[in-house]
Amino acid sequence: MKRNVTAVALALLTLAASAKQGVDPEMDKFINDLMGRMTLKERIGQLNLGGVGTPKVVGSAKGLDKAVKEGLVSSIGGFDPVAAEDVQRFAEDSMRVFIPMITGLDVVHGYYTTFPIPLGSSSSWNLGLLEESARVAAREATAFGINWTFAPMVDISRDPRWGRVAEGAGEDPYLGSLVAQAMVRGYQGDDLSDGETIMACTKHLVLYGASEAGRDYNTVSMDDVTAYNYFLPTYKAAFDAGAGSGMTSFNVVNGVPTTGNRKVMTELLRDQWGFDGFIVSDANAIAEMIEHGVGGPQEVAEMAINAGTDMDMSASLYVACLEKSVAEGRVGEEVINTACRRVLEAKYKLGLLKNPWLYYKNKDKRKEIVLSPGNLDVARRLARESVVLLKNSDKVLPLKPVKKIAVVGPMGQERAELLGCWSYGMSADTMSTFVEALAREVGPDTEVVYSQGSNWTEQPAIYKQGGEHPSDSLLMQAVKDVADADLIIATVGEPAVWSGEAHNLTNPDLAEAQKKLLYAMKETGKPVVVALFSGRPLVIEDIDKDFSTILQAWHGGTMAAEALADILTGKEAPSGKLTSTWPRNVGQIPLYYNALRTGRPYSGFWATTKYIDSTNDPLYPFGYGLSYNEYKYDNLRADKLQAKGEGDRIRVTVDVTNLGSMPGKEIVQLYVNDPVAKISRPVMELKDFAKIELAPGETRQVSFDVTPDKLKYYDSELKYGWDAGEFNIFVGPDSRKVEKLAVKWDK
């Protein structure tokens, strides 16, 4: 039986009176009044994210205009800012109870000004610069009416086969948590309603990065101890930083689709963590629960809303099914009201309910806001600090003055490919190619020439370039073109489309066509610099063995070319360090630094965890990255070796000296190991770091405070605490090259 609007209003006011403490009373009153004027159908409509620039709401037979007029669309995608503005205007003119739309888009690593892919940006370990990049992205996106970003992606991943590893901060929960918080602060600022900030959306909830075999959307099976200690902290950190929304993941976890998992969406996020924002499904994820085998449209819609998923992105199953569910008693009206309230609270905090056109206040300033000199400077600095020097054994870098440099490889003359996945290409026409940037940087006394040398691959099923010469003919031409060059820079790796959503690889190796190019260049006898561009760690053990000079440039964004030229020429020494372990071969995957100890460690005949055809060690460990300088770590010490109780601390100090001839930045890393605990603990865990600047010859004392918070973990009963006893403290430039200090902590 339907209730009338007055009865609904009374029920809602009663609900508001019992609302949790800490709610803004002005907001509460405003939303009570608004919801009191809405029908059940309109409240369900606030739970639907529709499309823009399409003839219908995705998954629905209703036209978009009709759906908006009836109050069945709450939020829209902002791929087309003109269409988004038109929908907002149509809504204002036609809705019975006008409620402005949220306009959302995946502003993952920039909008017009594009920054390095997140995996690359995280390699900077520069939290302040990461926050600044998110601030720039928010300022640019809001000028086009976008006020909600489907970012940051905070999924921990240990598998470089997974295409979406490009979108996260790597494998470590501590660093990943700090990166997540920096991005949330950058997007949201101090005031979500100032018109130049953007609501963050923590994704993907949960454990999405642990999909089996590195296949996107695939199943995840994981015990709670592993989840709580390694994979869940980044999501919580983003919510603790104030992220206003969260997004469900496509995958099944332990047999239950996460979009319909009440244990995750309500018991974990809300009851345990206290998250009070709204949760949106990933695109069509509610409908895709049908394919998971848990019910038809009616059943999966009910499962998702009862689990705590507040908004349906793209499937339109809530507007199609939930009125019936309420009428037949399978979904309580209070569940609809709670979800609707969360969405309206987000709109209130964004300032939309008081000013629907707030996010168009800078419409006339778009040209001066996007790609501004200040924004490009942030992009260049972050791209520079993201470059990781993997090998420089012959000291070819920084480049010495020469008469002629030959650039070869498929990335040398690209622009848009430098932007990486989840970019919109809006800066591509303004960008430099690497050849152009390098030529400017080395000056007129050095000639820079380019020869493609190979296609990305000769496997058209993977990537069809169309119309180009076969790689063999390109290779023969390149050999001729480099004949009188003094130095060769090979720009190889992956095009942007090889990573990102649904772009997984069984073997993240360098394509054979590009390998042939590298070895042909090596046979010339000239120095070869290998510049890698990719959205993931690559399997390059053979390249590491046979080439002296290797850099990882990722997909570096709008200023990628200039940044790499800066590094190669020594304008700045490289300072990036890896946030994902690089395996020697695909058979080692998953490989990560913070593994548990085994009963038979990797030594001796009975060491059953070893391979017979490969070492266990990675090619490049977590935290690894070289500089043009050598940094000496010396005199690791502590102000005391024994502490007691929660309020105590041990200050660990190390002397770091720049032995090189250039100013440089070094990332000093602190790891902790708990050798005797209630459960088996990792060989080491990152617990602190400092990125410091050192002049040539300068020594700095770098200190870290170790407190019980750095010793805590979730035990087998999911109790969070720490054990009294001995602990090992490690400090060094990466997770492999460390000095050890033993301390004791009593309760």
Layout of strands and helices, then pairs:
Blueprint lengths: L4 H13 L7 H12 L3 H6 L2 E3 L13 H6 L5 E3 L3 H14 L7 E4 L12 H5 L4 H16 L5 E2 L23 H16 L12 E5 L18 H8 L1 H8 L4 E4 L3 E2 L2 E2 L4 H11 L5 E3 L4 H8 L4 H11 L4 E2 L3 H11 L5 H17 L16 H4 L3 H14 L1 E5 L11 E5 L25 H9 L4 E5 L19 H11 L5 E7 L18 H11 L5 E6 L7 H6 L2 E4 L7 H9 L62 E8 L3 E3 L5 E9 L5 E10 L11 E10 L4 E8 L6 E2 L5 E2 L3 E8 L6 E8 L1
Parallel strand pairs: 1-2, 1-10, 2-3, 3-4, 5-6, 6-9, 12-13, 12-14, 14-15, 15-16, 18-26
Antiparallel strand pairs: 7-8, 11-16, 17-19, 19-22, 20-21, 20-25, 23-24, 25-26
Helix pairs in contact: 1-2, 2-15, 7-8, 7-17, 8-10, 11-13, 12-13, 13-14, 17-22, 18-22, 19-20
Structure report:
The protein has four domains: 1-37, no CATH class; 42-364, Alpha-Beta Barrel (TIM Barrel), CATH 3.20.20.300; 388-575, 3-Layer(aba) Sandwich (Rossmann fold), CATH 3.40.50; 631-746, Immunoglobulin-like. The protein contains 22 helices and 26 strands. Strand 12, helix 18 and strand 13 (447-451) form a beta-alpha-beta unit. It is globular, with a radius of gyration of 27 Å. The strands form seven sheets. The protein has a six-stranded mixed β-sheet with strand order 11-16-15-14-12-13, sandwiched between helices. Strands 4-3-2-1-10 form a five-stranded parallel β-sheet. Strands 18-26-25-20-21 form a five-stranded mixed β-sheet, with no helix packed on it. By secondary structure, the chain is of the alpha/beta class.
Which features does this protein show?
747 residues, alpha/beta, TIM Barrel, Rossmann fold, 6-stranded mixed sheet, 5-stranded parallel sheet, disordered N terminus
